[in-house]
Fold this sequence. Notes:
Elements: E1 13-14, E2 35-37, E3 47-50, E4 56-58, H1 59-70
Antiparallel strand pairs: 1-2, 2-3, 3-4
Amino acid sequence: MSSYRLSSSQGRRRLAPRSDAGAPAACPACQSSAIVTTEKKPDASSYWRCESCGEVWNDSRLDATRNFHRG
Length: 71
């Protein structure tokens, strides 16, 4: 498995809390609001990184996993 890491803040964009299809409001692991993405126009397939704990996630996959474990 390969590792992907950006140096400092190059290519990262800090976004305001999510409206309907924007950035997540907080990290699902630590609840920090310090989250970034490399996408110019984030959408459902965008990956996010928490600058506090380093967690990387994709909202649509995270929701699918939650729904799978509920049902």
